[in-house]
């Protein structure tokens, strides 16, 4: 059951606007939504979103969030749906923003030991890609099909955390979109950034409540 709230409802007009931005194949309003009503949390009832959107780039994410913000529509970001705490379940209905199509490995910088990836990249693909360059990403939260974006959003740890630390120890920088559609850049290919607040670490582990992550720089 959807939790009662003060949020607005998704209208046919909003669906039409989302379709204009993303194309029909990236906007789901039918039975396919059932696949986005749950994660892997045991005993948690599924909640059907009013619409599922699948952006393919940062600009599209920004447009989605701006449209939703203007109409007070709740947005639930979603990675691989492998979480065990219900973070991807859209308890207020609204929009599920699935980042599965933003799954490109943008750069593997062998000189600086940094991988730049989109949030929909899954762990197994990252392991293979960096391994081909003789590099290593040590974290393993327990699910090879988990996405990097989901790992960052939840500050995932796993069985190797005792030796290597958790996800936040490997995040050097982020690109993220705020609720109003504004895109920000935090951190970069360096270990220390003494200017201002550490927004990279603030967003890491915030589970989509502060921003939607669209690009990640990882230390290898």
From TrEMBL:
Designated name of the protein: FAD-binding PCMH-type domain-containing protein
Domain FAD-binding PCMH-type: 44-220
MF term (GO), any: FAD binding
InterPro entries for the chain: FAD-bd_PCMH (IPR016166), FAD-bd_PCMH-like_sf (IPR036318), FAD-bd_PCMH_sub2 (IPR016169), FAD-linked_OxidoTrans_Type4 (IPR051914), Oxid_FAD_bind_N (IPR006094)
Pfam families (UniProt xref): FAD_binding_4
Organism of origin: marine sediment metagenome
């Amino acid at each position: 059951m959807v939790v009662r709230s003060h949020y607005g409802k998704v209208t046919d007009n909003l669906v039409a606007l989302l379709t204009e931005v993303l194309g029909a194949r990236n906007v789901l309003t039918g039975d396919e939504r059932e696949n986005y009503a749950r994660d892997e949390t045991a005993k948690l009832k599924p909640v059907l979103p009013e619409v599922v959107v699948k952006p393919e780039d940062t600009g599209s994410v920004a447009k989605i969030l701006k449209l939703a913000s203007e109409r007070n529509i709740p947005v639930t970001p979603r990675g691989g749906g492998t979480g065990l705490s219900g973070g991807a379940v859209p308890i207020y209905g609204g929009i599920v923003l699935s980042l599965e199509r933003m799954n490109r490995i943008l750069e593997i910088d062998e000189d600086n030991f940094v991988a730049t990836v989109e949030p929909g990249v899954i762990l197994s693909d990252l392991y293979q890609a960096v391994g081909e360059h003789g590099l290593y990403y040590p974290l393993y939260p327990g699910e090879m099909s988990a996405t990097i974006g989901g790992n960052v959003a939840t500050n995932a740890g796993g069985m190797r955390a005792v030796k290597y630390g958790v996800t936040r120890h490997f995040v050097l920088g982020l690109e993220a979109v705020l609720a109003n559609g504004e895109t920000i850049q935090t951190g970069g290919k360096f270990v220390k950034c003494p200017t201002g607040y550490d927004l990279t670490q603030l967003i890491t582990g915030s589970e989509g409540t502060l921003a939607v992550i669209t690009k990640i720089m990882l230390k290898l």
